[in-house]
Specification:
With 270 residues, this protein is mainly β. It is built from three helices and 19 strands. The protein has helices at 96-102, 135-143, 147-153, and strands at residues 2-3, 6-11, 14-21, 32-34, 39-41, 52-58, 71-78, 85-95, 110-114, 118-123, 154-156, 166-174, 184-191, 200-208, 216-221, 232-240, 243-247, 253-254, 262-269.
Length: 270
């Protein structure tokens, strides 16, 4: 069922995925923030819905570890055809008790963290399934993550791990249907808590629009940069040939005090 840009997935009258968001195929994959498993993972921006598929499996659905692992988050390269998917990354979540029993013969992979209740394991492909000189081979290489990147993108609920990166996303829109190829879009996240003081810049991203279409922009920042007691706004402006042509003129709160992590910004003509 879908309404606007949001919906949920239901199987046999049971909701199996909530708070789903419709995204363009060429936009970065949404971060995973799963309270049930305690996992926070922010995929690299080069991973889009067009080239990477994400799947979540539980219990007996998990290959090899169905009797011990709680969940498996699979990232697969869409290579060749819709039926051909090749592993880019698996993140397995084990109960601490089950992991303790496996310590003598642990599964292969990189241990990302241990929150006292669960152990998180990353498995990366050992080789390129394609000829490295082929189109798919080159794309697979470009999409691969290093162990350091995986560690940086990973965190756990309530625990900041490895100086993990957090993010906030905004869908930028404007009312007219014109395209603005070559225009420069600037999106900023600021702390607006203090009165009569210039707002503090937390994160900023500048993009040149090649197709001229309104994009979704993800801003990344360190979790410790955010104070839950403060207020944060996200804003945007569009410039063409050095001239400001559109700007957001309303407050768009994010992150704290009940504000969302994903939002939209409407730009108005100057």
């Amino acid at each position: 069922w879908l309404k606007g840009q949001g919906g949920f997935l239901e199987v046999d009258e049971v909701i199996v995925a909530n708070n789903c968001t419709l995204i363009s195929a060429d936009e970065p994959l949404n971060p995973i923030r799963d309270a049930a498993s305690g996992l926070i993972f922010i995929p690299p921006e080069r991973w889009t819905a067009n080239n990477v598929q994400v799947d979540v499996k539980s219990g007996s659905e998990i290959p090899f570890y169905g009797e011990t692992a709680l969940q498996q988050f699979e990232y697969r390269f869409r290579g060749g055809s819709d039926s051909e998917h090749y592993p880019l990354l698996d993140i397995l979540v084990f109960p601490k008790s089950a992991w303790t029993q496996l310590e003598n013969t642990p599964p292969p992979g990189l241990v990302l963290g241990d929150d006292g209740q669960r152990v998180y394991l990353a498995q990366l492909p050992s080789n390129n399934p394609f000829n490295p000189a082929s189109k798919n081979g080159k794309e697979f290489i470009a999409l691969q993550m290093t162990p350091a990147e995986v560690k940086q993108a990973f965190s756990m609920y309530g625990i900041v791990k490895n100086k993990a990166i957090e993010s906030v996303s905004a869908k930028v829109m404007w009312l007219d249907r014109r395209l603005y190829p070559g225009a420069v879009l600037t999106v900023e996240l600021r702390d607006v808590s203090k009165m009569d003081v210039a707002s503090e810049l937390i994160a900023k991203k500048v993009i040149t629009l090649t197709q001229g279409t309104p994009p979704t922009v993800t801003l990344k920042f360190a979790p410790e940069a955010i104070n839950p007691k403060h207020r944060y706004n996200i804003s945007a402006r569009l410039e063409q040939d050095g001239k400001l042509i559109k700007i957001s003129d309303t407050q768009t709160p994010v992150l704290t005090q009940g504000a969302p992590r994903e939002t939209s910004i409407m730009l108005k003509a100057i």
